[in-house]
From TrEMBL:
One of its GO terms (cellular component) is chaperonin-containing T-complex. Belongs to the TCP-1 chaperonin family. The lineage of its organism: Eukaryota, Metazoa, Ecdysozoa, Arthropoda, Hexapoda. One of its GO terms (molecular function) is ATP binding. It is found in: Cytoplasm. It holds the Pfam family Cpn60_TCP1. Its main location: cytoplasm. This is T-complex protein 1 subunit epsilon. Keywords: ATP-binding, Chaperone, Cytoplasm, Nucleotide-binding. InterPro entries: Chap_CCT_epsi, Chaperone_TCP-1, Chaperonin_TCP-1_CS, Cpn60/GroEL/TCP-1, GroEL-like_apical_dom_sf, GROEL-like_equatorial_sf, TCP-1-like_intermed_sf, TCP-1_chaperonin.
């Protein structure tokens, strides 16, 4: 994708492509929102939901041409979607989540990353995503707080150099070049007040008429600086993290008093550091006390390659829940794509922590639902049976697309899989994309979360129902 200002994005993440396309068509815009809502809710399956909605719309057009009323089609689709979801629940397999045995979760994250550009270090990325989620997850409450997982990217180096840091990574360096690069058993003062003498709040103008006045003013400033540094030292801090900057004089004084400091640390990062180290964010120097300091086992500065690029890592924190994934790559495009992919993998692992049932991927679950919906259609005597059959055909569009993308004969592959699923009563048979000669997705470890699949079918059906109920599109400039 090339944006208006010439920025290039290379991605096969469905939601990103849809978000960056300039869509003029009204229904197209609704499709973009659809992929967005799947991305917000689940984080994965954005391409599938759009493919499904497109297939349903295509089928609906044929039904309207036959003279079936749109409302009847919409109702039929709704019932068919419920039938498909029921079938999904019937074929879903429980999936135990055990922090001790990560392998099954890694397999699921690998399924998500399989279609992405990062599949060169497929396993490593999947393991990083699983470790990050398990670190911040509350397994009993089935909750994962995503705010504690931060993804940092740094261009340069290979993708294999990406690491998961149990702590916070800040894209900053120590404020003075001579400050120590590694600190152990650190007490952090987290400040949101600037290191500068207080200014009178009134609108003021200060006339300095003589050299004495100027010296007095300078001494006052220096006194204030020393006082501030002393307050931080007295509280027992061995590292100051400041949201604002400080001038060279303050920097020099900090170095003199052997108090390493980091300046210009952004708002979200400061919060993460506070959560990780168990410190409090202090807005005024007067309020700084020893119990408000955070603690970390190790703070170190790492440098990349030969360049002056450095980052600060805060590790071995009091609250080890905050983690940072540091992604490396050859250029900004690759790191951005890796970030999107790892986000998908994190979301999938999260949705499994929330609802730990799975279905098999590779189009297997869609074929199974399609067969169930078609079977149900034969039981109906009303007009809705046409909508049911169309829904069954639309569900087949996903295995068809998979077969086509893998260079197989789509129709032949699909008809063979359908007959085998019926004959063997095995809902795990899907498209054998790797051409291994085995279609059992259980053996390939191609698994998807039930939550994500259900959401795809329901969201696509909702959107298509809404579109079917549109009588007419009027735009503002129709009078021209």
């Amino acid at each position: 994708m090339v944006s208006g200002d010439g920025d290039v994005t290379v991605t096969n993440d469905g939601a990103t492509i849809m978000k960056m396309m300039e869509v003029d068509h009204e229904i197209g815009k609704l499709m973009v929102q659809l992929s967005q809502s799947q991305d917000d809710e689940i984080g994965d399956g954005t391409t599938g939901v759009v493919v499904l909605a497109g297939a349903l719309l295509e089928q609906a057009e044929g039904l309207i041409d036959r003279g079936i009323h749109p409302i009847r089609i919409a109702d039929g689709f709704e019932l068919a979607a419920q039938c498909a979801v029921k079938q999904l629940e019937a074929i879903a397999v429980p999936f135990p989540i055990d922090p001790q045995n990560k392998e099954p979760l890694v397999q699921i994250a690998m399924t998500t990353l399989g279609s992405k550009i990062v599949n060169k270090c497929h396993r490593q990325m999947a393991e990083m995503a699983v470790d990050a989620v398990l670190n911040v997850a509350d397994i009993e409450k089935k909750d994962v707080n995503f705010e504690l997982i931060k993804i940092e990217t740094k261009v340069g180096g290979r993708m294999e150099d990406s690491v998961l840091v149990k702590g916070v990574v800040v894209d900053k360096t120590m404020s003075h070049a001579q400050m120590p690069k590694t600190l152990r058993d650190v007490k952090l003062a987290i400040l949101t007040c600037p290191f500068e003498p207080p200014k009178p709040k009134t609108k003021h103008k200060l006339d300095v008429t003589s050299a004495e006045d100027y010296r007095a003013l300078r001494e006052y400033e220096q006194e204030k600086f020393v006082e501030m540094v002393k307050m931080v030292k007295d509280a027992g801090a061995t590292l100051a993290i400041c949201q604002w900057g400080f001038d060279d004089e303050a920097n020099h004084l900090l170095l003199q008093h052997e108090l390493p400091a980091v300046r210009w640390v952004g708002g979200p990062e400061i919060e993460l550091i506070a959560i990780a180290t168990g410190g409090r964010i202090v807005p005024r120097f007067e309020e700084l006390t020893a119990d408000k300091l955070g603690s970390a086992g190790l703070v170190r500065e790492i440098s990349f390659g030969t360049s002056k690029d450095k980052m600060l890592i805060i590790e071995e924190c009091l609250n080890s829940k905050a983690v940072t994934i540091l992604l490396r790559g050859g250029n900004a495009m690759i790191t951005a794509e890796a970030k999107r992919s790892i986000h998908d993998a994190l979301c999938v692992v999260r949705s499994l922590v929330k609802d730990s049932r799975i279905v098999y991927g590779g189009g297997a679950s869609e074929i199974s639902c399609s067969l169930a919906v078609a079977k149900e259609a034969d039981q109906l005597s009303t007009l809705e049976q046409y909508a049911f059959r169309s829904f069954a055909v639309a569900l087949e569009s996903i295995p068809l697309a998979l077969a086509e993308n893998s260079g197989l004969h789509p129709i032949e592959t699909l008809s063979e899989l359908k007959s085998r699923q019926v004959a063997e009563n095995c809902p795990n048979l899907g498209v054998d994309c790797m051409l291994t000669g085995n279609s059992d997705m259980k053996k390939h470890n191609v698994v998807e979360s039930l939550h994500s699949k259900k959401q795809q079918i329901l969201l696509a059906t909702q959107l298509v129902k809404m579109i079917l109920k549109i009588d007419d599109v009027r735009s503002k400039n129709q009078s021209d």
